[in-house]
Amino acid sequence: MSSTSQFNSQDGFNARLKKLRKSHTRMARGYNATVGRDGLIVFRPRPRRRGLPLRGIALTIAAFFAFKVLVLLNLGEPSYQARAAELAAGTAVEQAGAWLMQIDPFTRLIAQQIAPLI
Predict the structure, then answer these.
(1) Do residues 40 and 85 make contact, with C-beta atoms less than 8 angstroms apart?
(2) Of the four, 6, 11, 110, 116, which is 20 to 30 A from 101 by CA?
(3) CB count in 10 Å sphere of residue 92
(4) 43 Cβ contact partners less than 8 Å away, ≥ 6 residues apart
(5) Tens digit of pLDDT for each residue in 21-51?
(6) Distance between CA 108 and CA 68 in Å, rounded?
(7) Is 21 in a helix, a strand, or coil?
(8) Inter-axis angle of helices 92-101 and 54-75, nearest 10
(9) pTM score, two decimals?
(10) Cα–Cα distance list, 76 to 57, 62, 107 (Å)
(11) CA separation (Å) from 17 to 11, 20, 43, 51, 108?
(12) Is the distance from CB of 77 to CB of 115 less than 8 angstroms?
């Protein structure tokens, strides 16, 4: 047996190992099992979900508004407005924070609804 044919068979073996490792990695993230017409069970990796995690974004926004409402209820509206005005007089980042933390109608409505409960 020549060294060239041994080298080629080694390359083929390494290629098969690489393919198996890749398949195993994909299957580790989840798989679907289906039964073919011949009765053979075939496992295929689940397709990867791409796109924006809408649930995570919605929860982040809800948590931000809850934070604003709790701070507003804790400080009171005059003190809250005074602190937001201090932020507005600061750097660009502080001004952006002041804009985000300003009392909007939604925050005011939720605070009015929760205030009697607290």
Answers:
(1) no
(2) 116
(3) 7
(4) 27, 31, 32, 33
(5) 998 888 888 888 899 899 999 888 888 777 8
(6) 10
(7) helix
(8) 90
(9) 0.59
(10) 28, 21, 13
(11) 10, 5, 18, 31, 62
(12) no
Closest CA to 71 of 51, 93, 100: 100
Give the long-range contacts of residues 38-45, CB within 8 A, separation 24 or more: none
Task: Tell me how far the alpha carbon of residue 57 is from its chain's centroid.
Answer: 7
pLDDT tens per residue, range 53-76: 899 999 999 999 999 999 999 999
8-to-1, 16, 21, 64 alpha-carbon distances in Å: 12, 12, 20, 60
Residues 6+ apart with CB under 8 A from 97: 87
Give 111's contacts (C-beta < 8 A, 6+ positions apart).
Answer: 69, 72, 73
Cα 101 from chain centroid? 23
The number of residues in the chain equals: 118
DSSP result, 37-68: TTS-EEEEEPPPP-S--HHHHHHHHHHHHHHH
Side chain identity at residue 52, one-letter code: L
